[in-house]
Amino acid sequence: MTDRVTRAEAAAVLGNVDEKVLVDVIATGATKAEVAEAFAWVENDEAMLNEGRPLPGGRAAQVIAILQAQLESETSEP
């Protein structure tokens, strides 16, 4: 059985993110490993593709969507 990521674990993996992002990530039910995988994809998807890794699915994909939305909102703010 895998355990859902805790707030402390998510914060340690993701670094300085909004509280809403942490809450949304935890709500996916993702494990710490899934959050770490999602974070790695968001930070450097080209390297992951070059390694031949398949795009994540399931909860990791949900976390990627949350993180990408956060990045997009940060870049669109004046």
Instruction: Count all strands and give the number.
Output: 0
Note poorly predicted spans.
none
The H-and-E topology, N to C, reads as HHHHH
Task: Give the biggest sheet.
Answer: none
Q: Which secondary-structure class do the elements indicate?
A: mainly alpha
Gyration radius (Cα, Å) is: 12 Å
Mean pLDDT: 91
The DSSP helix count reads 5
Distance between the termini: 44 Å
Task: Tell me, briefly, the overall form.
Answer: globular
Helical fraction: 55-70%
Describe this structure in words.
This protein has 5 helices and no strands. It is globular. By secondary structure, the protein is an all-alpha fold. It has one domain (7-76). The chain has helices at 7-14, 19-27, 32-43, 45-50, 58-76. The longest helix has 19 residues, at 58-76.
Brief summary of the model shown:
This protein is mostly helical. The protein has five helices and no strands.
Please tag this protein with its features.
mainly alpha, single chain, 78 residues, 5 helices
